[in-house]
Amino acid sequence: MKKLLAPYSKVFRNTGILLSGNVVSKLINLFTLFLTARYLGTGNFGTLVFVQTFVLIVITFVSFQPWQAIINYGTKLSQEKDGKNLKLLVSYGFFLDLLSAILGFILSLIFIHYFSHYFNFSEDVILYSSIYSVVILFYINGTPTALLRIYDKFKLFAFQEIITAIVKVILISITCLLQGDLIHFVLVWVLTDIIADCLLLYFGLKEYLRRGNKFSLYFSFKEVNEKFKGIWQFVWMTNLQRTIKIVPNYLDIIMIQFLLGANTVGVYKIAKSIAATVNGLADPLYQAIYPQLAKYWSGDDKNNFFGLVKVIGLIMGAIGIVAWLGIVIAGNEVIVLTMGLEYSGAYEVLVWYFLGVIVSMVGLPIAPAMLSMGLVKQHLYIVTISSVLYLIILYFSLLNFQLAGAGIAYFMFYAIWLILYVIYFRSERKNLNEINQPN
């Protein structure tokens, strides 16, 4: 086993660094969420979750998030110390980040004040959504994220997550002690989101500048397209894929709100957050594996490239199964003990939902592998097909199985997703082997 994992020691080292901060911050955030949910009750908590989800949808829909393109094109530039072209790439990335933030903020306010009545937004929801939309202006973290990953500064991600989580739990605790209203919780969530984004921006720029690079927002689109062939298509495809993932990531909350009500949204959020905390292993690994896969592919090291995909899939699948068994055995007791009977309905949906998490963990390395191989269109097709099917399955599952249907639909979504990924990935690998075979 040690010999099998030896070539990928850097990936696991970076994952360990990220995980140290990720697990701690997720546990603190889960405690903060439990505290908020228990204090507010299912109705007010569901409203808070709905408002946050609305803003996240706007961010995802409008934000270009060029970090994947910057990693894909910038990794080699950093290795070759090509400061001139790296500056061009970074300027391009920051421009897209800033444009997305400004455009997203404007569009969110337009929607809230001119179209929200078509969706029966209450006056409180309109007020809270308007306040929360300020977060969008500070969401300039795509390029800083890419820079920290290229420079292997994964400790700074961990530091940012822990600091933000500690600040949030302190402020939420104070709000509870002072018997604050829902609007005070909204303000705390807004403030801590802004702090997180500002820290990431600071760390990314600091690492970039301390290597002697210069920062500028001045660049030529023509020069970018000439130097980095296909970058505009890469950015559009990866962000279209990200936009489509609004469906499984956020539209479940919206659909549950309209079909089952705010109380049910609050219960569902607890189940979803528990699953996300356990699934915290996947986020750091994705952040660590993508730059490494890009390096293997650009360096024509196909053996380690495909080997890493296989090893990560097996390890994550095993971890997921163990975690699911723990949830089945003790999940109900933990939820009732910590949250009260009001949230007991979260257990059934959590059991189903986490089956989907296991499938996503198994397939975790395939998505960054396909992006590293330049299979952006295929990646987009898979996400589109599985997301559309998920939306249909979710609607009928909620009607027939109530809240548990959300967990069933999530599991089916990732089952379809993984099957399509494996089919495409194996096909591309087979084609590659045929090309490399001697005549």
Low-confidence stretches: none
Overall residue-averaged pLDDT value? 86
Tell me, briefly, the overall form.
Answer: globular
Mind summarizing the main beta sheet?
none
Count, helices: 19
Note the run of SSEs as H and E: HHHHHHHHHHHHHHHHHHH
Cα distance, first to last residue? 36 Å
Number of strands: 0
Approximate strand percentage: under 5%
Class by helix and strand content?
Answer: mainly alpha
- Count of spatially separate domains: 2
Estimated radius of gyration: 22 Å
Roughly how much helix do the residues carry, as a percent range?
A: over 70%
Q: Any descriptors?
A:
mainly alpha; 439 residues; globular; 0% strand
Describe this entry's structure for a reader.
By secondary structure, this protein is mainly α. It folds into 2 domains: 229 residues, no CATH class; 189 residues, no CATH class. Helices cover 84% and strands 0% of the residues. It contains 19 helices and no strands. Helix 12 runs parallel beside helix 18, helix 16 runs parallel beside helix 19 and helix 18 packs antiparallel against helix 19. The longest helix is centred in the first third of the chain and has 54 residues. It is globular, with a radius of gyration of 22 Å.
